[in-house]
Specification:
This protein has 18 helices and no strands. The protein has 369 residues and is mainly alpha-helical. Helix 2 runs parallel beside helix 12 and helix 13 runs antiparallel to helix 14.
Length: 369
């Protein structure tokens, strides 16, 4: 019984996600439409990226990078700012989930290497905010943006104009909040070095670049996923042990839940009524319960007001833990290390994220809509 409880505590998000999926499957029984529920490009790109990051981790590559950062900056606040804004910048080009998968391991290693683990939760939360809000300035920064950009054939210049104000406000506020970390000196606790041959660094970097090309749809995601899986099975099989299979299962469950809920007549009627009153507020509310990507897809069937929908599904990624599925990546990363601190993390996460949601929504409703 103790093992069952421990397993449940460690995988609480996965269990809740599948409980919601199971309930929705009672309301909407299995049928041929289920085949179209799953966003295979997202799942495959997540899997291949986690494999490559796992290969770097198995060779302790992040130890070297962490050491360089600590020796250069020598200050906890500067470390926080650099880690947060590296993630922020990366989210513009890599998409929010990929930015987090890339830089969360570095954050954890940096603070562990200098004995400042007390800053991990706050920095990871700020990285999550940065990933969700930083990517909103470009069409390919967030998956919901890319969908709406394509579905409504939005011009890039118009897209940037729509998102510019909330983006700039996010930059300023995120930077200001990073000053919550005290400006205290940091130093290495050990001089441990990563033993990774140059050819492996080159190979894993090439595989990571390949996974990004799949994200940008330059190359076929199925071919890329298969290639990365085979290569790493041959040269770095331990990378498979670093893949967060629970996260993949969580994403799968939410795809089932969101799509099933969108097929219920009562839900569709309620959404149509809400959209008549405010597309923006409806989008914000929908994101809190169904996540921003499914909300963008679902609500786009009912309205042509892509401007409000674009703002809602990007800003709406703040708020609850499931408002953006990228937030689950951070939550899983933190609770995987500190399973007994999940509630404390969730409390701080909610405080910061709902703060951004309320502040940015006020600006949007006063200045933009």
């Amino acid at each position: 019984m103790a093992k069952v409880i421990k397993f449940a505590e460690k995988n609480i998000v996965v269990l809740i996600a599948w409980l919601l999926a199971a309930v929705s499957m009672i309301l909407v029984p299995l049928d041929p439409l289920y085949k179209g529920y799953f966003d295979l490009p997202t799942l495959c790109c997540l899997f291949s990226t986690m494999l490559v990051i796992g290969a770097f981790k198995s060779r302790r590559f992040f130890i070297t990078v962490a050491k360089v950062l600590i020796l250069k900056l020598k200050n906890a606040r500067l470390l926080c700012i650099s880690l947060v804004f590296i993630t922020f910048a990366a989210s513009v080009f890599l998409a929010n989930d990929m930015a987090l998968l890339t830089f969360l391991p570095l954050t954890i290693m940096v603070y562990k290497s200098c004995g400042k683990e007390k800053h991990i939760a706050f920095t990871i939360i700020m990285q999550t905010v940065s990933a969700n809000l930083g990517g909103m300035i470009m069409p390919f920064g967030n998956p919901q943006s890319l969908y709406l950009y394509s579905a409504f054939n939005i011009e890039v210049s118009e897209f940037v104009r729509i998102m510019a104000i909330p983006f700039l406000i996010s930059v300023v506020v995120i930077f200001g909040l990073c000053f919550a970390v005290k400006s205290e000196k940091v130093s290495l606790l050990s001089d441990e070095k990563a033993q990774i041959p140059p050819w492996r660094v080159a190979l894993y970097t090439a595989l990571f670049a390949l996974s990004l090309l799949a994200v940008f749809r330059v190359v076929n995601y199925l071919i890329v996923t298969a290639a990365i899986a085979v290569v790493l099975l041959a040269v770095e099989y331990k990378s498979y042990t670093f893949v967060d299979y629970g996260l993949l299962l969580t994403f799968t469950a939410f795809f089932i839940f969101a799509n099933n809920m969108s097929r219920l007549d009562e839900v569709r009627q309620a959404v149509a009524f809400l959209l008549d009153n405010s597309v923006y507020l409806t989008g914000i509310i929908s994101c809190q319960f169904f996540s921003n990507v499914p909300s963008a897809i679902f609500l786009s069937k009912f309205t042509s007001d892509y401007r409000q929908l674009l703002l809602a599904t990007n800003i709406g990624g703040s708020g609850t833990l499931i408002a953006s599925l990228a937030s689950l990546i951070s939550f899983k990363a933190y609770t995987g290390m500190y399973p007994d601190k999940g509630l404390k993390y969730l409390g701080l996460f909610s405080l910061i994220n709902f703060g951004f949601l309320v502040a940015l929504s006020a600006v949007v409703m006063l200045l933009i809509i």
